[in-house]
Amino acid sequence: MSTLTFDAIEVGGTLPPLTLAPINRTTLALFAGASGDHNAVHIDTDFARRAGMPDVFAHGMLSMAYLGRLLTLWVDQRQLRQFGVRFVGITHLGHQITCNGRVVEKFEVDGERRARLEIHTTNQYGEPRVLGDAVIAF
């Protein structure tokens, strides 16, 4: 995490991308245990296939957690004022996720200087999986 200032960032500027290891069954099992989300479509191949999927797939909140990591590698977590996402695609086993962000606005609220970011994840094929935004205080 670097120490950024409001004056040092520019609209259109990008965050350093974060690329994660390909999604595997171990990651899904560990996330299920850590999050308490034991939905069978994420950990039971037979259940996922009965649900019409080719195999288990990643929890949406895992991708959101990766975006949270992108943000907190850029600024201290105490600077986060807003963080929301929309899930637009399934992250399958073997997908390698990259998280990106871009500054889209600089503004002030009650004397606090802030920046609005567009954030997203894509798989190794460039397909969007999660779209979101965040507001950071400086």
From TrEMBL:
One Pfam family linked to the record: MaoC_dehydratas
Family matches, as InterPro entries: HotDog_dom_sf (IPR029069), MaoC-like_dom (IPR002539)
SUPFAM superfamilies: Thioesterase/thiol ester dehydrase-isomerase
MaoC-like domain segment(s): 22-113
GO molecular-function term, one example from the UniProt record: transferase activity
Name of the protein in its database record: Bifunctional enoyl-CoA hydratase/phosphate acetyltransferase
